Amino acid sequence: MSQHMIPAEGPTEKIRVLAADSTRMSSQLLAEALAQDRQFEVTGIEPKGASILEAVAHKKPHVLLVSSVLEESATLGFDLTRQVSASYPETRVVLLMDTSSRTAVVEAFRCGAQGVFSRTESSKSLAKCINNVYQGQVWASSVELRYLLDAFRESEPMQLVDSRGEAILSKREQDVVRCVAEGLSNREIASRLKLTEHTVKNYLFRIFDKLGVSSRVEVVLYVFRLRKEMGAGLSDNQCVHCFRVYEGAEGKSGNTPIAVKRAVDTVKEPRRSRG
């Protein structure tokens, strides 16, 4: 990967990034490349599961950039993403992918990744990817997003009302879902709704269980599907801005609200595995 990154405008607070590529050397090179962008505070770490989890717990990074292949295992990166998403929800994960196959992309998001970044893409788009994920957006190419939407469409329908015909989610749970769709962190949701972070986490656990989903990405797609039922308080633009779709080998990025809105009109969420 090239070590020449283009500095981009970002938040005043530096974005704390942990970089764990497939080897120790590539992790260090990746960290040095990203560190040239002054909006980042980057640490390269040993690409081993235990070391990564320890570093996440100690450094509390905003974004974990991690290879899907770790310790010569093609599945460890996905397993690690699931663990980080469950135990450290404030840390957003971007998976570095050797291949953007449909199976790998869908599994990445189901494990809780906020973005997938193909090694075939230009390195200068990596800074944009990290910045957008930090802001609560989901990073995927148009092809990768199509994989995700197709997988949801092919899944069995979600039950939207209970046996009495009432909405599955309470009004307060819908408030939390709106905040998730805006890309807010648990802390930001707590501040807006005047709740504790612990209460927000409990709401999210109940929401995931009721909807049969396992990640915030799936919750955002649920919002797309039910935006009318949830009222005018959540606009299409608020939903759409969570998705950052990039096109072309040079990683040109931009929002595509019309394409995304049409694609999600018939989205059906996957049931969470009970195994």
**Approximately how much helix is present in the residues?**
40-55%
Arithmetic mean of pLDDT: 76
What's the CATH H-level superfamily name of the largest domain? Response regulator
CATH topology name of the largest domain, in short, is Rossmann fold
- Rg (C-alpha, Å): 18 Å
- Catalogue the unreliable spans: 1-11, 228-240, 247-275
Tell me, what's the shape? globular
Tally of alpha and pi helices: 12
Write down how many β-strands occur, each being a DSSP E stretch of 2 or more residues.
Answer: 8
Give the count of structural domains. Answer: 2
Order of helices and strands: EHEHEHEHEHEHHHHHHEEH
Tell me the strand percentage band: 5-15%
Measured between the Cα atoms of the first and last residue, the distance is 38 Å
Main-sheet strand order equals: 2-1-3-4-5
- What is the C-level CATH assignment of the largest domain? Alpha Beta
Name the structural class.
alpha/beta
Give me the CATH architecture of the largest domain, please: 3-Layer(aba) Sandwich
